[in-house]
Every structure is written in structure tokens, then in C-alpha cells.
Amino acid sequence: MPAAVSVVSRGRSKMRNTQRKPSILNFDAGCGSSLSFIVIGLVGFTLIACLFFISHQVKTGHAHSYSSHLPATRELEQVEEEHFRLPPPHKVNPRAVKRTVKRRGSTKASKIIDEYLDGSSALHDMFFPSETTAVNPTKGRNDSMYFYPGRVWLDTDGNAIQAHGGGILYDQNTATYYWYGENKDGPTYQIHPEGAQRIDIIGVSCYSSKDLWSWTHEGIVLPGERTNITHDLHISKVLERPKVIYNDRTRQYVMWMHIDDGNYTKASVGVAVSRSPTGPFSYLYSFRPHGFDSRDMTIFKDDDGMAYLFYATRGNTELHVSPLTADYLNVTSAIRRILVRRFREAPAVFKLRGTYYMITSRCSGWAPNPALAHATHKIMGPWETLGNPCVGGNHFLRLTTFLSQSTFVLPLPGLPGTFIFMADRWNPSDLCDSRYVWLPLSIGGLADEALDYSFGFPSWSRVSIYWHRKWRLPEGWRKSYA
Ligand code: DGJ
């Protein structure tokens, strides 16, 4: 085929030559060489202008195409392909799937997702391996602190970690990491046949760790309320995506979370405070930020001590970002709409060298969907979309964020440009057995779909989440806290 193509193209050029019409661009030999001269001159000028532009960007700190390829992180950035054979399909319970996954077409991928979500399928078992394969810090460190995305992950007491939709705080005061998340250790049920699968509020769990691999349960630092049915934290309500930051002025640990009723119509944020990272946290109140409905949310503390709330709003059609007050207990009056009409949720915000990044998911209940990375120079926006950050695995895994949904992105202090992407592999048929997908995320190289081009150069670096069946943190990841 390529030979035929080249014959055709040669024939065409011959025809063009014989039928060439006189034109003002039809120079003789002498004119041809001056044209080349002009072209070379123009190309040279453009190159010099581009080099000048790049050096200016570097000098002014506006060069955002950042390369993170440190020798220590090379292994994390290996592209690992995954070739699994799908088990033979079984009859999916249509009612269960209808309730779990709404408004999805019947593409091949969505059929596989329906099957994966059905707790009784072999495909489901493939991605929710049994406890016999659990990551277990009580067994010593023979398996040398590997993360295994999707496996049961035990704490230092040998119990499955219950910290879903969570986030991590590095506490300078105790030089310890604290992982806060939803404790979902209860039975899954539906309030009504069309409702989402749910678990009663048990509370927010806290785990501590120095190495990010072996986690000690510090208890339920914000428990559900058993008796007062009008309380936001009554067990019949919804508490999701708790995140904690430390306020250096007030010396309080401040927790923000999504507060809702069983039907997700309250759509509010809740705030709680504590003097200690391990609680107990006192619940203050819930409210709708600026009067808007607020579902999936996160908070982000910037280097200058300012903190921001990001929340999915207007029926999940867009996100809003708002600075918090100095005590982190409320939002200020400033508000910006971002990613309007994009239907994004599960925001996880992080920063590298003056650029802010965010990973989001689409809105599809507990079902996985493709992640997107976004970036901006100004946290209040506008935010640009960079594309799907997932690398490796296979097409299906990349289309489903490795069968997970973003919740937090944790910087690794000794490895600038490398982060841990934290996500939930939800198990709607048994939410308490939802798993964690932690993978290395790095910023480097040019983004695939950067919309903002200046002088032909995309302004953003690529955000990549690398699939690994098993991986561990490289030496030196802690350096700057040592
Ligand atoms: C997706 C959200 O990201 C989760 O936190 C949870 O609210 C589920 N939807 C409920 O269906």
C-alpha cells in the first residue's frame, strides 16, 4: 500500500509540473535562491524568537513544562502494560445495575463496568481480590513495603483500613502523616429501590504513619450520632470526603466534609475542629456555601497559608472555588465558577512550582469513569483541562481511572514533581469492602491536550498517573522532612 500511495503522489506532482500556470511565485533560478534566503531568514528569526521566549519564561519562572525525571523516580514512571483475560460474562442482575449505574450507554466498556460492579461476577472478584492477598504490615516488612492497588490493606492491628474518600495531612508538629477518611464498616443497603447504595454514618477514621505504608488506627475522630435524628451526623445521613488542614494562627486542626441527607438533597459542607490531629473533633455546623448546593468537595491549603474550598455544585454541572476565612471555619465572599458544564466531581488539588493542578472524575455514582487533569496559574481560575492522566495498564483501565475515583493527591517532599494519587475503588455491592488505589503521579513533559498555547508552546506540563500492579516509594522520598 505505501508504494501505491507514493506512485500516485509522484504522478500528481508530474501533472502539476506540466500544467503549471505562470504566477508571481514562479521565480526563475535566481529568484528561487533569494526566496530560499528569505525563508531561511524567517525560520532563523522564528527560532531565535522562540529561544528568547523560552529563556524569558525560565527567567520569569513561567516555564510550566517541568521535567520530574529524577533517577529515583524512573522506576515509578515505567509504563506497565496489563493484559488480563476477561472471565466469561455472566448474567448481570439488571435491577442492581440500573440502580448502580445510571444513564450509561451500552458500549462495550459500559457492559464490562456493569459486570464488574455486580458483586457476584468473576470480573468483580478479579479486581477485589480476597483478604488472603492483603497488604499486611503486621507480617513484618518482608514484602518490603509495596503498595498493591486494589488489594485489602490492613492496619497495624490487622484490620482492614477504613478511610474512604479520604485525604492526608502531614503534621509538622508531630512529623507524622495522618490519613482521614470515611469509616464504612457497616452493611450496605438502599433507602428505596432507585436510591444509591449507602452505609450509615459510622464516622471519620484517622490513621497515623511515618512511612505512608504501615498505618495505625487512631480511632474514629468524628463519630456518627446515634440518638438525635435531626443532627447532621445522625447515622441515617451522609458524611463523605473528609479533609483536614492545620491552621497555624488558631492552632486548630480543621476538618471539612460533604454533609447530606440520605437522598443527597441537603448538599452542604460541614466543618469540625480539634486541638489534636487525632481528635476528637467537635462538629460545628453545615451550610451551603454562598447558598449553592455542594456535593463532592475538597480543601486545599496553599504555601502562603490561604486555604480554599472546591465543591461540585449546580447539580454537579460545575465546580466552585472559594477562599476560606483566616480561621478556615467559613468561606469568604469571593467565589469563582470553574469547569462550567463539565460535570466533574471528586476534586483533588495539588501544586508544583507555582502551578496548581487538579484531578477530577465524571459524575457516575459509584461507577468508575475517566479522570481528567486540569491546571491553572491562578487558583481561582480559569482552569484548563489537560486530558486523561492515566498511563499504562490498558485501554479499559485508563478509561476507568484504573477502576477508581480520585480523592486526594499527596506531595512527596523529597521528590519534587512526584506525588501519590489516592483514589477509591468503590464496591457498591458491599461498600465497606471498597479498596484503595494509590499510584505514583508525576508532572513532567508536555501535556497532550493543553488548550493554552503561547507561541506554539503548550504552557502546561503533562500530569501522568502510572499504573503499577505493585510499587513502592523510592529512597529519599522523605528527604526534606528528615
Ligand atoms: C460519587 C461521589 O464521588 C462519592 O463520594 C459518592 O457521593 C457517590 N457518588 C455516591 O453515589
Automatic annotation (TrEMBL):
Record bears the keyword Hydrolase: yes
Record key words, sorted: Glycosidase, Hydrolase, Membrane, Transmembrane, Transmembrane helix
Example of a GO cellular component annotation carried by this entry: Golgi apparatus
Entry-linked Pfam families: Glyco_hydro_43
Biological process terms in GO annotation: carbohydrate metabolic process; classical arabinogalactan protein metabolic process
Highest taxon of the lineage: Eukaryota
GO molecular-function term, one example from the UniProt record: beta-galactosidase activity
Membrane spanning residue stretches: 35-54
Keyword Membrane applies: yes
Family: Belongs to the glycosyl hydrolase 43 family.
Protein's recorded name: Uncharacterized protein
Organism, scientific name: Triticum aestivum (Wheat)
